[in-house]
C-alpha cells in the first residue's frame, strides 16, 4: 500500500529530474512511465479499432505517422559499432581478419565491413533481419495517441460533452456511405468560439453532422462541458461563469 502511494505521488516525477534521488525513486518513475505507455497504447488501440478514422495518418500519403520514425530507428541501429574501410591493398585483408572475427568483404567495391565484437555483429544481423522489421512495424503501428488528441486549443469540455456522440454518428454515417476506412480527419480546432472539424473523403451528410455539433458547441463551456453562460471578448470562446476566470466577457443571450 505504501508503494502504491509512492507510485501515484510520482506522477509528476519528471520535474525532479535534476534533483539527486535514490534508486527507489528512479525505479518508481520508470514503472510509472511504463504504466502510462501501456495504458495509452491500450486505450488508443481500442479507440482506433472502434473508430478507424482516429488512427493518426499522414494527410498526403495515408501512412501512419510513425513510419518515418521506424525508418530512422532502423538506420540508427544499423550503424551501431559498425565500421567500414576501403582496402588500398587486398593483402591488408589478412590483417583485418586477424584483428576482427566478423568481417564482410565486398570485392566489387573493395570495402570491408567489420564489427567491434560478436555482440555487435549479432545485433547488426538482428536489425537487418526482415522479421525484426516486421515486428517493429507492428510495434510502431500501435497508436499511443490519435488525431482526437490534437485539437488546437483547450477544448476538453467539448470532448466531454459531445465527443462520443459525434464519433458514433460519424461512424454510423460513414458505414452507410461505405467510407469508414477512406474518411480522413485533417484538423480539429476552435474557430470563432465554435467547434470546427476539417476532413477529406466525406459525404454531404458528414458535413451536416459536423455542422450540427458546430452549432451546439457555441452554447457549451469549452473547459468543463457545462452549459455556457458567457462568451469571452477578444479571443471568442464560450464559458460558464466558473471557468471564465478573469477574462472580459459578455453574457450569452438566451
Overall pLDDT score: 76
Class derived from helix and strand content: alpha+beta
Helix-residue proportion: 40-55%
What is the count of DSSP helices, taking H or I runs of 4+ residues?
Answer: 8
Report on the biggest sheet: 3 strands, antiparallel
Strand content: 15-25%
Number of domains: 3
- Number of E strands: 9
Low-confidence stretches: 1-14
In the sheet with the most strands, the strands line up as 1-3-2
Order of helices and strands: HHHEHEEHHEHEEHEEE
Shape: elongated
The N- and C-terminal alpha carbons lie at a distance of: 51 Å
Evaluate the radius of gyration. 27 Å
Task: Write up what this structure looks like.
There is one protein chain. The protein has three domains: 2-50; 67-139, no CATH class; 147-251, no CATH class. The longest helix is centred in the first third of the chain and has 28 residues, at 23-50. It has eight helices and nine strands. Helices cover 45% and strands 15% of the residues. Helix 3 runs antiparallel to helix 6 (130-141). The protein has a three-stranded antiparallel beta sheet with strand order 1-3-2. The chain has a three-stranded mixed beta sheet with strand order 4-5-6. The protein has helices at residues 2-9, 23-50, 67-78, 93-99, 118-128, 130-141, 156-177, 204-217; strands spanning 82-86, 103-106, 111-115, 151-152, 184-191, 194-200, 230-232, 238-239, 249-251. The chain has 254 residues and is an alpha+beta fold.
Task: Map the helices and strands.
Layout: H1 2-9, H2 23-50, H3 67-78, E1 82-86, H4 93-99, E2 103-106, E3 111-115, H5 118-128, H6 130-141, E4 151-152, H7 156-177, E5 184-191, E6 194-200, H8 204-217, E7 230-232, E8 238-239, E9 249-251
Parallel strand pairs: 4-5
Antiparallel strand pairs: 1-3, 2-3, 5-6, 7-8, 7-9
Helix pairs in contact: 3-6, 7-8
